[in-house]
Each structure stands twice: as C-alpha cells, then as structure tokens.
Design goal:
alpha+beta; GMP Synthetase, Chain A, domain 3; three-stranded mixed β-sheet; globular; Fe-S_Maturation_MIP18; MIP18-like
C-alpha cells in the first residue's frame, strides 16, 4: 500500500468517525477530540487510539465497539481494533474549534 492509498483510507476512516456521536454531547467523537490516533498497516488492519470524556462515561462499553464496527464496515479495511486510553486525560482544549463553537465555548 503506498502513501496515497494510506492517506485515502485514513480520510475514509475519519469520515466514518465523524458519523459517531457521544450520546451526551451533540458533537461527533472526532471533533470532540476523542480520537488520538488512527493507524493502518499494509494488511489493511486499522488501529484507533481513543479516549472518552471521562473514565466513568456511560458509553465506555458501547462506543469503542461502535467505532470498531463502523471502521470494519469500510471495504478497504480487513479488521479494526480500538484501544482506549486515558493518557493524556481528555480536556475541552482537545475539541476542534467547530466543536467549541457548536457547544458555545467560543
């Protein structure tokens, strides 16, 4: 897989992530800054490093599964794995300008 293909697949993954919303906040998980990294290897396996707004988040069980399922549904991806981390801890500073505007923080 060449660099252009990798970038194209990465963009498709980001577009999928932008369709997934935190149920308590009307902003998608990508704009919220919950996605720390997206990696795709030559075997078309995706690994997503993400966090939650808090370790006690009510969707701690379901949100990572939803991310895995939706990324796996892309025809360019063979498998997807989501790794949850709380290092660094999520803060409102990690939100995009668009998310801050949407939530009235700007």
């Amino acid at each position: 897989m060449n660099h252009e293909e990798t970038v194209e697949i990465g963009d498709k993954i980001v577009n999928v992530l932008k369709t997934i919303y935190d149920p308590e906040i009307p902003v998608d998980i990508y704009e919220l800054g919950l996605i720390y990294d997206v990696l795709v290897n030559d075997q078309k396996q995706a690994k997503i490093l993400m966090t939650l707004t808090s370790p006690n988040c009510p969707v701690a069980e379901t949100l990572p599964k939803e991310v895995e399922e939706k990324v796996c549904a892309l025809e360019e991806i063979e498998s997807a794995e989501v790794e949850l981390t709380f290092d660094p801890t999520w803060t409102q500073d990690m939100m995009s300008e668009e998310a801050k505007l949407e939530l009235g923080f700007l």
